[in-house]
């Protein structure tokens, strides 16, 4: 890899952009492919699958030409809006599953270090936090405060950022009112349909711990089944 290509790769990783280093194993020629830039040939189809799986592979075409596809995906992370009992259970589960997790809640009575020891906890309004630490396609947003003043802004931001997972706590009735508010705020119907509500896989979860397990399972499912970018907009983003 040339120094120029290495600098470009490192810049993409710093910017949390999905990128792949493709090397022709016969000639040594290499290049970077950004998510959404693949062609529709056999190699392009493998590139797309590799972006989805996140696992580097060697691909051999019908002509015998072999390529090494070394994929670099940003580490998936979880942003939880609400320092509640579910969040307390979700934090260690996320850590075990290999996800970075941040909890945001302006209510200092809930967002206390005593309740969330060792957790990246931010006791500020979510809109301020997300302006400094923007969401992206490799972020899962979990809204669990039940307070529209706290949850609605991050949900809207998550849909605009195309987070791979957007979930919100609440009954279907509660979610119906949430959809009405977000629709009035300008969020399109297609985006609203992406909100997982009631949150978590339907495993009959009842306790905060069980709900946290259901949420984590749904996040993993969304990450592993996510659709890579469909066009070449990523490189110009």
From TrEMBL:
Residues 78-219 form the XdhC Rossmann domain. It comes from the Bacteria. This is XdhC family protein. It comes from Pararhizobium mangrovi.
């Amino acid at each position: 890899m040339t120094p120029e290509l290495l600098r470009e790769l490192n810049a993409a990783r710093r910017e949390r952009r999905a990128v792949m280093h493709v090397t022709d194993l016969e000639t040594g020629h290499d290049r970077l492919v950004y998510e959404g830039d693949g062609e529709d040939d056999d190699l392009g189809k493998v590139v797309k699958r590799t972006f989805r799986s996140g696992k580097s592979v060697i691909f051999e075409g019908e002509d015998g030409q072999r390529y090494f596809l070394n994929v670099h995906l940003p580490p998936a992370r979880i942003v939880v809006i609400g320092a509640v009992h579910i969040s307390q259970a979700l934090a260690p589960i996320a850590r075990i599953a290999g996800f970075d997790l941040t909890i945001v809640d302006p209510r200092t009575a809930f967002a206390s270090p005593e309740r969330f020891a060792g957790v990246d906890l931010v006791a500020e309004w979510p809109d301020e936090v997300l302006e400094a630490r923007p969401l992206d396609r490799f972020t899962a947003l979990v809204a669990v405060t039940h307070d529209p003043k706290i949850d609605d802004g991050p949900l809207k931001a998550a849909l605009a950022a195309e987070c791979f997972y957007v979930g919100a706590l609440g009954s279907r009735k509660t979610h119906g009112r949430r959809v009405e508010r977000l629709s009035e705020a300008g969020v399109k119907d297609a985006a609203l349909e992406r909100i997982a509500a009631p949150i978590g896989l339907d495993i009959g979860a009842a306790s905060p711990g069980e709900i946290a397990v259901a949420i984590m399972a749904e996040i993993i499912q969304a990450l592993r089944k996510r659709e890579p970018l469909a066009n070449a907009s990523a490189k110009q983003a």
